[in-house]
């Protein structure tokens, strides 16, 4: 994809969805829903409940979710 003129539509599509994809990735990395998993890092614990750190959810959990969501992307 070195020639941007040849791949103009794909390049534009990537730039359009990159910001939304990154925001979703960051949101999933800190999602409180995963607090019960042992592999999730916590900032602190309150009343015996884990508070998930901003980057607490491992990529091994986040990337399969992003892959599944990508199946719903439309041009």
What does the model show?
The protein has 75 residues and is an alpha+beta fold. Helix content is 45%, strand content 12%. It has helices at 8-29, 59-70; strands spanning 42-46, 49-52. The chain has a two-stranded antiparallel ribbon with strand order 1-2. A hairpin with a 2-residue loop joins strand 1 (42-46) and strand 2. The mean pLDDT is 87.
Share of residues in strands: 5-15%
Distance between the termini: 19 Å
Secondary-structure element sequence?
Answer: HEEH
Rounded mean pLDDT score? 87
Helical residue percent band? 40-55%
Largest sheet: 2 strands, antiparallel
Counting helices, strands and paired strands, the structural category is: alpha+beta
Major sheet strand order? 1-2
Q: Count the beta strands.
A: 2
Uncertain runs are none
User: Helical region count?
Assistant: 2
Q: Roughly how many Å is the radius of gyration?
A: 17 Å
Question: Which word captures the global form?
Answer: elongated
Characteristics of this structure?
75 residues, alpha+beta, 2 helices, 12% strand, elongated
In a few lines, what is going on in this structure?
The chain contains two helices and two strands; from the N terminus they run H-E-E-H.
Fold topology:
Elements: H1 8-29, E1 42-46, E2 49-52, H2 59-70
Antiparallel strand pairs: 1-2
């Amino acid at each position: 994809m070195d020639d941007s003129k040849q791949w103009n539509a794909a390049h534009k599509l990537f730039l359009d969805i990159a910001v939304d994809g990154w925001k979703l990735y960051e949101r999933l990395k800190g999602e409180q829903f995963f607090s019960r998993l042992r592999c999730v890092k916590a900032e602190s614990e309150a009343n015996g409940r884990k508070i998930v750190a901003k980057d607490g959810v491992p990529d091994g959990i986040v990337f399969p979710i992003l892959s599944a969501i990508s199946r719903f992307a439309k041009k």
